[in-house]
Structures are given as C-alpha cells and as structure tokens.
Amino acid sequence: MASETSVLLVLDLVGTFAFALNGALTAVRATHVDIVGVVTLGMITGLGGGIIRDILLGALPPATFVDWRYLTVAAAGGLIAFLFSRGLSRFTGAIDVLDAAGLSLFAITGAGKALELGVGPMQAIILGTVTGVGGGTVRDVLIRQVPSVLSSGMYAIPALVGAALAVVATSSGVDQVLGAPAALGAAAVCFVIRMASLHFGLDAPKPPGTGSAGTGAPGGVGT
Length: 223
What we know:
Number of domains: 1
Strand content: under 5%
Distance between the termini: 33 Å
Largest sheet: none
Helix content: over 70%
Number of strands: 0
Structural class: mainly alpha
Radius of gyration: 16 Å
Number of helices: 9
Low-confidence stretches: 213-223
C-alpha cells in the first residue's frame, strides 16, 4: 500500500506540473495578463481539479494545502510558462502533449485516491474525471471563455475511460500484482485517445442538426 501511494503521489505531482505549465501557456495566448495572472492561472489549472476532488471526498484540508510540493510544483510550472512563453508557444504539439499527459495522470490519480477513501467504483470514476477536467474548467471561466468541456473536442471521454480502467484494475487486484504499470497503462490509454482525437479531429457526438465543432483548444477542457 505504501508503494502504491508513492506511485500515485509521483504521478499526481507530474500531472500538476504538466497542467500548470499548460494552463499558464493557454492563459498567455488567450489573455493579456501579467506575471501574477499567468502564475495564478497556471496554479489554478494544475491544482483546481484536485482541490475539487478532495472537497467532494471530505478529505480536508485538500492535499494542496497540506503538502508543500503541490504548490511548489504548480508555481514552478506557471513561472516557467511566463519566462519562456514566447518560445514555448511555438510548440503547439508540445502543449497538446502536456495537456493530454496532465489529463491522463489526473484521471487515474483522482480515481485512485477516491478508492483509497472508500467510495464506490462509479463514484471513483466520476471523481477521477472531475480531477482531470476541473482545473481547466475553472481557468476557462476566469478568463471568460466557455469551458471546452461543454462545447467541443474529446476531453472528458478519455478521462472517463482512463479512470474506469484504473478502477477496474484496482477492484480486480491487478494493480497489486503489477503495481505502477497498471496505473500507467490506464493513463496511456487515456493519453492515446486524447491525442488521437486531436490528430484526427474527432469530436464527441453532437445533437442532430447542430453541426460539427472543432476540437478543444489545448489546455482547455473538451467533452
């Protein structure tokens, strides 16, 4: 159990950095904000989903405010985005990869923490998805954009799939045999689905007659 918890912590911190960097870069491209705005929006993107998850689970205070590493990693991601935004913004593909990586890692760590705290499988899948899309949604609201999770692209669906696979692995005991590879395998599936949707321009189904929207912007959250 201790090693499993350590794996989840490492993945959570990596996801936090990836989302913070991605969220700050998205803020730079979408708005005219100063260093405080960039770092703050990056931290909100990196930490928002986990805070929402912990509040819903009653795990208070949220891990963000108990473990200094979360705030440090998120602030570092936002600061790096501010300092090197001009160069980093040229690499749209890299931003997409960071976005997909953060989504994948957060989906499985969110589901894993929910299971650790004793919630049921379905609730854990939902909370894993919320962990993945929550921070980007809050960021989009703050910069006055309609969250992409409500409008375009495939974002929540890969998170649902990844969280579901992680829950199935844990419930069946596979994670206790394979350890980290089971968690990383679930994250890899989520990552591949997200990247494939971006590469091929895939969208979630829309109501008949509404037309086809483009994929969600990198760092935003799509359906």
